[in-house]
Amino acid sequence: MRTLQVKGRYLAWDDGTPFFYLGDTAWELFHRLNREEAAYYLKTRASQGFTAIQTVALAEFKGLTVANAYGRLPLQFTQGVPDPDKPDLDGDYTYWAHVDHVIETARQHDLMITLLPTWGDKFNHNWGDGPEIFNAQNAYRYGAWIAGRYRDQPNIIWMLGGDRPLEARHRAVIDAMAAGIREADPNHLITFHPPGGHDSTDYLADAAYLDFHASQTGHDVAHCYASDAVMRKMADRTTKPYLDAEPRYEDHPACFNDRLGYFWNDADIRQNAYWNILAGACGHTYGNHNVWSMNRVSTSYFPHPWQEALTHPGAGQIGFVKKLRLSRDFFSLVPAPELLCDLYDGMGHMAAAAGHDYVFFYSPLGVPFTVDLDKLGEAKYYKASWFDPRQGSETVFSVLPSTGRTLLAPPTQGKGCDWVLILDAIT
């Protein structure tokens, strides 16, 4: 069984092959879809280039009290309360047999399952459906049980948390669950999903059991235009890999307010993806508001059925981020903002990163910008290409000298006209 490992700031298979984490949030996958629907979802996401599916064993939307597609709940009850020590294992089509089947189907499509043992309202019921059922003692036992069940399944990444902050008593639950997981399963990677506007270094910077860190830059304007600054903040706090596990979702009402009449679209989600990878992230997570929830009925807040939203533009375009990253030497890429003479602000701010014999520059609005070629290195000249984030195409347009400052104008300008300039060193 090949395993994922940490390699510097990035992830790799144990044979050294790069792994670009391209995630999709499908939080309600186990809870709301039947096997045929799950297979369709997974096949579609695999064809779009995704490599990981983020989903939850004990789901957010009344996951302990409303049955799945086969009429089963994940836990049996003790004195009227769902009991983490009593998983549903009796009879045919049990809840956990369904989870087994979906995880195995994902493996057949070469998809990792980034598995949250529980959503956060089950240990921190500040909001949500709950009920709160975990303490440190049963969290350890449940962690050991679920990790023991899936330790031999090759396509597992563990994700603790679930959109909740950690006070001392919650930290004790997460530490205990992690201890149970690690004792039963020493091989699979572990990360943490924080609440909106936070990252895992806010709560678990000292947690040795975390293999890589994650943020939730979220769905309002407080952090969405500064997601790469959040990446740099994590880089300053840890030597481990990091990524954005929940940025803006396609089709999500901006700032959680459907009355504004603006829903984040493909242009919005591309911005976070390219900003973040040029800030050194080991991957990126996409999400569609109607897909994570497996929505079936159109409303003002969830405007599309999940099957329709599955192929909305951003879901196809996000795979081009992976295409770009894997097109050059993977492990050498580091942020290089010093190569830009024009950084700009807000939605239009620029990003740059350099790897072995290449540089990427991201212009989110197609605004002309100046690069400082004197800082690039020892090449004699550079082959210059434009990469189109909408089409995934790369077009050579010039050869540039290796000295001086050069003003470059992307092919188009305006919202939705983002471009990546690629400079390849030629010696």
What structural keywords apply?
single chain, 427 residues, alpha/beta, TIM Barrel, Immunoglobulin-like, 2 domains, six-stranded parallel beta sheet, six-stranded antiparallel beta sheet, 12 helices, 22 strands, 25% strand, globular
Can you walk through the features of this model?
- The protein is of the alpha/beta class and 427 residues long.
- The protein is 26% helix and 25% strand.
- A 6-stranded parallel β-sheet has the order 10-9-8-5-4-14. A 6-stranded antiparallel β-sheet has the order 15-16-17-22-19-20, with no helix packed on it. A 3-stranded antiparallel β-sheet has the order 1-2-3, with no helix packed on it.
- The protein starts with a strand and ends with a strand.
- The relative contact order is 0.10.
